[in-house]
Amino acid sequence: MSQQKQRFFNPKLKLISIALLVLILIITNKQLNLQQAFGEAIIWVESLGKSGPIAFIAIYNLATLLFVPGFILTLKGGCLFGLFWGSIYVIIASTLGATFAFLIGRYFSRNWVSRKIAKNPQFRAVDKAIAKEGFKIVLLTRLSPVFPFNLLNYVLGVTQVSLKDYILGSIGMIPGTVLYVYIGSLATDLTRLDSSNLPSTPETQIAKWVLQGIGLIAFVIITVYIAKIARKALNESVVTTQITEEE
Fold first, then answer.
1. How far apart are CA 180 and CA 207, in angstroms?
2. What is the C-alpha to C-alpha distance for residues 28 and 94, in angstroms, rounded to an integer?
3. Quick check: 9 pLDDT over 60?
4. Does pTM surpass 0.85?
5. How is residue 196 annotated by DSSP?
């Protein structure tokens, strides 16, 4: 096969591979009930003593890559380690897991996507806008629960968001993390802690409503914001093209 054909096929194979990987992970998660398996693994962490936090972070990382919802693991982190340390460990674990997924998305498919985007001025403008305002985009998407956390990790890797902006923007996860760690810290029985058996107080209910309100506002802002900066980038691109043609 010629070099030209290899350059054409390899990026496509990378994109197809990551798409198949994501699909397989989602199906596997559903079929094997990985959420329950990871929940039981967290119970095992309780017996590890001082090495428990390291095992917890490793398990949480793997769960993030395998599309296992982190909600229950976050709750159990609060039950295991309390509000302060539970929040610290979950934030470290979720940020690391999200970063690994981001890097997989970037190095498997970014080159192919870039070439496709280059052919479309609108897509190119959106991609440029996201690169320019990467921190704000990531921050707003992390604040809003509307955007699926696990899938978003891979998708953002395909954009021009820098790794630094991606990691810094992930602080948007903190409000939701602290809330669910706090709810988990109220539980007394780690083995029975799941989405149907959550500790509830008036304070946690108010906090959940506030968090949902913040998420909704963030969703509206990011929808309008991306459209605005993309339109601006597109107009700048058109003006630059016209100037080049005149010269």
1. 10
2. 21
3. no
4. no
5. T
